[in-house]
């Protein structure tokens, strides 16, 4: 199958089973196709138990499907050995989690710079880029604050800056407003729109909130591991 040059995610016949071959065998995703092109802002909506977390883990290279094919930015990621997946994740995917996952006792600059250290960037370069990214998300004046000195919205903006550190092909956001009040969540959502529209970042936004999903350029619904509506 020929994959278009601008395709960031190309999944075909993805199946994920657990406890395969046992009486407890569970099929969470039976047969899923999913495409995302460069520059898209796509929401994946689903209730608890719909398979969102399983799909996110497969997209994010945190888990492998039982069967199917997955190309990320043209690369057959399922052919990559386990010991190379961490490097691939670091270079191609920026993660934004509901609970921020910032490292305590490290200030905002150090948190944002951490992925660049693992990518081999010099200290001077990664500090300069971290400060630029913090300025980009409106956190320049909090760059030397540790996570316990930041509000929830500020933590999430630092987390978004960290996700952008290695200029990833894809931003993968898992319920990024779920731990925030509505006003703060609105600010974070506006930032995602800005990143998509002004900087061209490709975003997959996983949420249970259909109102937020309606703001994205395309929404797909996951029910019992099956995608419906807006599937490219």
From TrEMBL:
Keyword Zinc tagged: no
PANTHER family xrefs: ABC TRANSPORTER ABCH.1 (PTHR24220:SF86), IMPORT ATP-BINDING PROTEIN (PTHR24220)
Domain of life according to the entry: Bacteria
Annotated keywords: ATP-binding, Nucleotide-binding, Transport
Occurrences of domain ABC transporter (ranges): 9-231
Name recorded for this polypeptide: ABC transporter ATP-binding protein
Family matches, as Pfam families: ABC_tran
Any one Gene Ontology molecular-function term assigned to this protein's record: ATP hydrolysis activity
Any one of the GO CC terms: plasma membrane
Keyword rRNA-binding: no
Species of origin: Corynebacterium tapiri
InterPro entries listed in its UniProt record: AAA+_ATPase, ABC_transporter-like_ATP-bd, ABC_transporter-like_CS, ABC_transpr_LolD-like, MacB-like_ATP-bd, P-loop_NTPase
PROSITE patterns: ABC_TRANSPORTER_1, ABC_TRANSPORTER_2
């Amino acid at each position: 199958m020929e994959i278009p040059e601008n395709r960031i995610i190309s999944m075909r016949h993805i199946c994920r089973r657990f406890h395969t071959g046992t009486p407890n065998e569970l099929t969470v995703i039976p047969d899923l196709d999913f495409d995302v092109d460069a520059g898209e802002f796509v929401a994946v909506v689903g209730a608890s138990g719909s398979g969102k977390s399983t799909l996110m883990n497969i997209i994010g290279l945190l888990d492998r499907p039982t069967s199917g094919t997955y190309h990320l930015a043209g690369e057959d990621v399922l052919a990559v050995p386990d010991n190379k997946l961490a490097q691939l994740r670091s270079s191609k995917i920026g993660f934004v989690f509901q609970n921020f996952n910032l490292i305590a006792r490290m200030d905002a600059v150090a948190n944002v710079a951490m992925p660049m250290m693992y990518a081999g960037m010099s200290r001077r370069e990664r500090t300069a880029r971290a400060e630029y990214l913090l300025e980009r998300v409106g956190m320049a004046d909090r760059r030397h604050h540790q996570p316990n000195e930041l509000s929830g919205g500020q933590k999430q903006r630092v987390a978004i800056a960290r996700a952008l550190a290695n200029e990833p092909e894809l931003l993968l956001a898992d319920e990024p407003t779920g731990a925030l009040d509505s006003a703060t969540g609105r600010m974070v959502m506006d930032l995602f729109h800005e990143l998509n529209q002004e900087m061209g970042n490709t975003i997959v936004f996983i949420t249970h909130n259909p109102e937020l999903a309606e703001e994205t350029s395309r929404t797909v619904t996951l029910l019992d591991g099956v995608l419906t509506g807006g599937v490219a």
